[in-house]
User: What shape does this take?
Amino acid sequence: MAKPATLLTFFLLTLFLVSTTFGFRFSDVVNDDPEQQLKQCRKECRQRQPGEKECPQRCEQQYREQTKQRHGGGEREGEDPEHQLERCREGCRQRKQQHQSECEDWCEQQYKEQKGQGRGGDRDRENPQRESSEEQERNNPYFFDEQSFTHRVRTEEGNIRALKRFSMQSNLLQGIDNYRLVILEANPNTFIIPHHCDAEIVLYVVRGRGNINILKENNKESYNIRRGDILRINAGATVFLINKDNNEKLYVAKFLQSVATSGHYREFFGAGGEDPESFYRSFSNDVLEAAFKTPRDRLEKLFGQQRKGAIIKASQEQIRTIERHASSAKGSHQWPFGESKGPFNLLNKQPTHSNNYGKLWEADADDYKPLQDLDVQVAFANISRGGMHLPFYNSKSAKVVLVVQGTGYFEMACPHVWSQRRQSEQGGRQSEQEKEEEEQQHEGPVRYQRVRSRLSPNTGFVVPAGHPVVTVASGNENLQMLCFEVNAWDNHKYYLAGKKNILRQMEKEEKELSFSSPAKEIDEIFNAQGEEAFAPGPEQLQERQEGGSHGPLESILDFAGF
Assistant: This one.
């Protein structure tokens, strides 16, 4: 009978001969990481068959199959997307993977794709034009809908939802991948238990009123918060909140900058028990007994009783008592001299722009100094029904927009979408070398593609720096949007229509050379819109002009990419 060592030697020799014959490497078999195998496969395609398309496509197909298997994968015939999502998440939890959050994000992405495929059905096949429009909106890499949010906390009294990482939406958004958008909703008379987060936070109160307590090293700060308040919370500070209103929900939007793992964040609950789980339970009994100088049976009782979740109902008497204690806490009042440590209310400030068609409020580090080191600006836009925010672009800032009320749509001119979709069709991920090679292959005249999506509450979009964008409110109600802008320092907003249109500064000869049209005709078009920042939208204008022609105006907007 052969010895084990001899059998192992024979197996390795056979594997080497087979790999030499059929063109794969021993490392490909030993290394079961799909991403590493994908990278190796692409490299061998470039070395052996440069310019050939089928080889990289086979690599991508193998990568997708392996990824699906690693994530508890596969579809089951007749199983609805919600069950597939839950089964996928359970697979992530059971495997206890090192990157469990990426695993769960992958499940969410698969769920969204399944829902997107199922929405059309026979109805869309009956209307090809509608199918094309909906497909265009689904593939908009800058738009996110309600399904793009994942529940991090969910109880009967409220929830916390986080928008998926921006790079999961599209590699065009990798520049802001270290930021996350989070929504907190809490019912009246509720308590959000103490927790801290591995991220810097800018908080904005969209609706409601409450009280927030921030525990720092030797200090407790407490503030009443209401609609329009902006508040900075440092990473690691322990926070708890109450919704002290008897009738209205507390709706808070949070913009997070990760400090631990890029693009990821976690809440850490010390208070709690089994739901939410207290992180104290991760330590051994011996360590806890020594740390608290308390018998383990009492510790097990303390850290095991909470089963109501992170957002729980509180009596009105409890709310009043918490608020009374908070009013005496250091930092709860406005200092008579110097800078206030409390929230800054954006809506108490004079609007940056205001007319019959809309209002825009903006706050940066000059208004609220704690925004300075994060280099973030907060803005709130209220577009009157039927109105529009005129086309503009930001010089440096990337804008993340959340719709909080109303309906409408946005359009943006983008030079990147075509190449991004081509990459997606080829399987998604590319090395930096591959991206550079593709960029070189497609150098030439700039081509813009219009990206457009309909807007409703809890949807939103991202506007990269330099991209011209326009937002239009429906004729039914005002469109209200909360905006967080990254790289705010020295950013400039350039309008492309209206009184502030930057092209109006051009001289006669410069205009004629640029548009190949008489300067008089150009001036008539540029000067026709007398409003600034906000103006009547397409439907309002059409009603006023009773279907009149806009030929010259359309040609100018085409030049800007709309």
